[in-house]
C-alpha cells in the first residue's frame, strides 16, 4: 500500500534538552489506523508537531516563542494553543472547541476570542461549548441548547431569550 507520510532521518532537539527526535524514519500507510506509542517524554508530541508542520500556525496564534519548548514545559493554556496549531495545520473547514476558555488566564482568553474571530473571517465553521452567556450573545450567530441529553433550542441567537436560557441550564 502506498504511504501517505514518509519520514527519513528526521531529527529534532529542544535547546534546553537532549530529548526530541533522533533519526526517525517511518512510512505511514494510507487508510491505516496507526498508534504512536511511548512513555511520557518519549517524543510522541514532538513527532506529531513535526508531522503537522505547525510553525505557520504558531505565528497565527502568536505562540512562536513556544516552538523550542518541550511539551512538558508548557502550561495547560499553552498546550491548548499548540494543540490548536496542530489542528489548524490540517486546514479543516469545521473546528470544534470544547470549553475553549477553560483554564485560560484573562490574557489567553482574550487571545482565544481573537483567534476564533480570525478563523471565522477565514470562512471556518466554528462550534464551541461554553457556559459564558455574555460571550455567546456577543459572538454566536446561532445556538444549540441541550438539557438532560435533549435539544431544547436550536436556532438564531437573536431568537434565544437570555432569561429562559438561564432558567433552562
Notable features of this structure?
169 residues, alpha+beta, two-stranded parallel ribbon, 6 helices, elongated
Describe, in plain words, how this protein is organized in 3D.
The protein has a two-stranded antiparallel sheet. Strands 3-4 form a two-stranded parallel sheet. The chain contains 6 helices and 6 strands, in the order ββαααβαβαββα. β5 and β6 (150-156) form a beta hairpin. The chain is an alpha+beta fold.
TL;DR of this structure?
The chain is of the alpha+beta class and 169 residues long. It has helices at residues 44-52, 55-60, 76-88, 106-121, 133-139, 162-168, and strands at 3-13, 20-29, 94-98, 125-129, 142-147, 150-156.
Strand residues, percent: 25-35%
Number of strands: 6
Mean pLDDT comes to 86
As a percent range, the share of helical residues equals 25-40%
Uncertain residue ranges:
none
- The gross shape turns out to be elongated
Write down the secondary-structure element order.
Answer: EEHHHEHEHEEH
The major β-sheet equals:
2 strands, antiparallel
The largest beta-sheet arranges its strands as 1-2
Terminal Cα span: 50 Å
Specify the oligomeric state.
Answer: single chain
| Count of helix runs | 6
Structural class computed from helices and strand pairing: alpha+beta
Radius of gyration: 20 Å
Amino acid at each position: 500500500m502506498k504511504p501517505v507520510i514518509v519520514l527519513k532521518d528526521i531529527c529534532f532537539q529542544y535547546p534546553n534538552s537532549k530529548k526530541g527526535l533522533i533519526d526517525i524514519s517511518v512510512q505511514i500507510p494510507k487508510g491505516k489506523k496507526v498508534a504512536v506509542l511511548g512513555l511520557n517524554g518519549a517524543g510522541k508530541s514532538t513527532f506529531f508537531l513535526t508531522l503537522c508542520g505547525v510553525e505557520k500556525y504558531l505565528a497565527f496564534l502568536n505562540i512562536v516563542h513556544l516552538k523550542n519548548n518541550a511539551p512538558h514545559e508548557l502550561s495547560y493554556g499553552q498546550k491548548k494553543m499548540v494543540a490548536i496549531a496542530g489542528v489548524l495545520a490540517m486546514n479543516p473547514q469545521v473546528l470544534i472547541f470544547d470549553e475553549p476558555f477553560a483554564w485560560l488566564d484573562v490574557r489567553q482568553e482574550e487571545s482565544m476570542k481573537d483567534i476564533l474571530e480570525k478563523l471565522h473571517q477565514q470562512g471556518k465553521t466554528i462550534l464551541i461549548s461554553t457556559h459564558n452567556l455574555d460571550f455567546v450573545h456577543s459572538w454566536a450567530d446561532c445556538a444549540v441548547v441541550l438539557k438532560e441529553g435533549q435539544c431544547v433550542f436550536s436556532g438564531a441567537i437573536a431568537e434565544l431569550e437570555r432569561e429562559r436560557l438561564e432558567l433552562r441550564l
